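so my prof wants the structure for this chain in the tokens format not the other one, which i didnt know existed until like an hour ago. anyway here's the sequence
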Amino acid sequence: MPLPPLPPLWMPAAEPGAVPIWYYAAAPPGTSQRKPRIWTVFLAFAVAFLAFIVAQFVVLGIAALLLMKGGESFSSSRDFVEALQQVIVEPKVVILFGLLSQMIILGVAVVAVYFSPVPMVRRLRLGRSKLPLWAYPLVIGGALAIAVFYGPIAEFITRRLHAPGGTLKLLEDVLTHLTPAQAVAAVLVVGVLPGLAEEWLFRGYIQTRLSERLGRWWAIVITALLFGLMHLDPVQSPFAAIFGVYLGYLAEQSGSIRPTMVCHMANNTFQVLLAVSVKSQTAPSQSQERAVFIASAILLAGSVVYLHFNGRKWNTVNSATPASSFPS
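here's what i got, hopefully its the right format
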């Protein structure tokens, strides 16, 4: 389904229901404008990606120092590695890595916007969304439905790769053994913070910039692929890419990343709470699983159809050429 062309940057202030001027990032048609540079997008991603890897080694080094200071003796390097593997999956270490990695991603987004001539709210599309409040439960349900449908895919990938489940399995194992304080920290660091940091960088900075130069669909797909690559996991990365397409489409159709932040936070928080409470749950029956799949299909289809038809209406704006333009 084709997306409508990018709307003009300006909007007459007197027009009822005019889209706020900070929403638009492209200059009005008919005005002279240099094509926006996109190498800054890939530079920002490369910096975040490398810093993310460095963060893993930093946390690994901290875990090794704590292990050596514990006074425990090891008969061989293999024993030390096995003990280190036990330390890095402790809840406090996993939460520390989550906090460090998300702060890096958020920092890259903020620095990238700092060097942009466009104000932060416009560059990241942080302004008011055209999505009405009553539609938020619908798009959140669509986001959660993607996780439901990805479950069988994750199991297939795990069997094909003979892997223990990757990062998703690791998080599930860690989150099932949390104290109440650690559970609260996990909700904030694993559930809420990525919805802010990752959306600012990917759907905010990267996708907005790419859409100005390459068009909306290319921007959605490229950003989703980079989002998947960032997770560095054979099981989690495909889910992140698929989820990224949904979030990218939501951002383009609603004109803001506010709904994507809410959906991202809701998905992650739901997964954390589900993992925390899984030890007290019984396995669902086939009829319950079937009901969940049907409800998920309805929610996902309903949210996409709603965004498609209403997005076209929202993006129909006056395209007359104004006397001035704005920097890109």
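also thought this was worth mentioning. The chain has a mean pLDDT of 81.
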